[in-house]
Amino acid sequence: MLGLKLLTDPRWANIAEGNLEEILTDHAWCEQKAASNAISLITNNSEYEDLVHELTAIAIEEMEHFKMVIDIIKERGYTLGRERKDDYVGQLMKFSKKDGSRNMAFIDRLLFAAMIEARSCERFRVLSQNIQDKDLAKFYHDLMVSEANHYTTFLNFARKYTVDVDVEKRWKEWLDFEGKLIQSYGSKEAIHG
């Protein structure tokens, strides 16, 4: 369904489970950044009423996920660490087209968001199926479903609002780029690391 070119090695879940405080902190900040991205898309594209409505719901849901993760951190006696730089997301941002039409930049920002949601969904699936902690396995299964919905929302808006972009062709370019990029990740206690 997601079209990802390379799936995460299930052994990454062992790395994540080996340092839950670190993976949960990274995850919390990923949720906060996802909310901020949705808000940014709303701010820059407020003329699209349905997009404003849907992305407001996503921003709220992402902040609810942020709260859920920090609640888990607190319950387990961990500390929410400082925000981490996400090199994976930074590389995706560099791939985004910013020098074309306003519509091209808008569509690429939607595809950027869809790409992150797709990979997050896939990583949450790996965690839900491979970690020993049953409570966290269920938690990540539930979030996997949510991320899949976000992925389709962003991709569908790109398809709906394109003016001068062949969305299917550009999405394939995103998938190809991400397939090469992700080969450098999967060895750290980070959602995209």
What are the main properties of this structure?
193 residues; mainly alpha; Ferritin; 7 helices; 73% helix
Molecular structure report:
It is a single chain. By secondary structure, the protein is mainly alpha-helical. The protein has one domain: Ferritin, core subunit, four-helix bundle (Ferritin). 73% of the residues lie in helices and 0% in strands. It has seven helices and no strands. Helix 2 packs antiparallel against helix 3 and helix 4 packs antiparallel against helix 7. The model has no long low-confidence stretch (mean pLDDT 94).
- The CATH architecture can be named as Up-down Bundle
The tally of beta strands, per DSSP, is 0
Distance between the termini: 22 Å
What gross morphology would you assign? globular
Could you spell the SSE succession in H and E letters? HHHHHHH
Assigned CATH class:
Mainly Alpha
Overall mean confidence score, pLDDT? 94
Number of helices: 7
Roughly what percent helix? over 70%
Largest sheet: none
Counted up, domains total: 1
The CATH homologous superfamily is named: Ferritin, core subunit, four-helix bundle
The low-confidence runs, each spanning 5 or more residues with pLDDT under 50, are none
Radius of gyration, rounded? 16 Å
